[in-house]
Amino acid sequence: QPLPFRGDNARTDSVEAQSVGTHRGQQNSSRKHETLEEEESNAEYVNFAGWSVADDYVRTLLVRVRWELVRHVDLGDNRLTAKCMDAFDEVAQQQGLATLESLRLGKNRLGKAGTIQLAKLIRNYQPPLQQLDLADNGVTDEACAYLCESLA
Is 74 helix (H, G, I), strand (E, B) or coil? Predict the structure, then answer.
C-alpha cells in the first residue's frame, strides 16, 4: 500500500508521512489524501522524521518530491544507513539540490561510509546548506574531516 502524504498550500508546505486515516499533530480533516504514487509533492519542507523509514523506502519518498522547491529535509530518527545516500545521489543527478538549506539526518546509522558519501554529494552539487544535523550517526573523525573539507 502506498504511503500517503500531505501537501499544504500554507506558507511553509510540508510533506509528512502519516498512517492512513490519521494526521500527526493535527485534527482529522476532510482534506483529500493523495498518495505518493499518484502525484508528486510540491512541498518546500519534507518531514519524515521518526517514521522508521529504511534505505529501501527512502528512494520512493525522495523521487516523488519536486526538488526545485525543497528547502528543508528532516529524515532524522529513522533507520537510514550509507545506502540511503544512493537515493540522494539519484535525486541530485536528476533534479539537483540547488534550494536545499537544511538537512536533518540525526539519529540514523550513516556511519563513516554514509558521511563520506554525503560529503561527496555536497562537494558535487553544492547545495546552499545552512544547517546539517548528523548527530548520533557514528560519524568518525576521518569522515567528519572529509565532510568539513566539502563544506568549506
Answer: strand
CA 106 to chain CA centroid, Å, is: 11
- Residues 100 and 43: their CA atoms lie apart, in Å, by 12
User: Residues 96-133, buried b or exposed e (16+ Cβ, 10 A)?
Assistant: ebeebebbbbbbbbbebebbbbbbebbeebebeeeebb
149 backbone dihedrals φ, ψ, rounded to 5°: -60, -40
Q: pLDDT digit string (tens) for 55-100?
A: 989 999 998 888 999 999 999 999 999 999 999 999 999 999 999 9
- How far is residue 85's CA from residue 42's CA, in Å, rounded to a whole number? 22
With cell 546539517, the residue in question is 132
* Residue among 109, 102, 105, 116 at smallest CA distance from 147: 116
* Rounded Cα–Cα distance for residues 24 and 44 (Å): 18
Dihedral class, residue 7 (left if φ above 0, else alpha if ψ from -120 to 50, else beta): beta
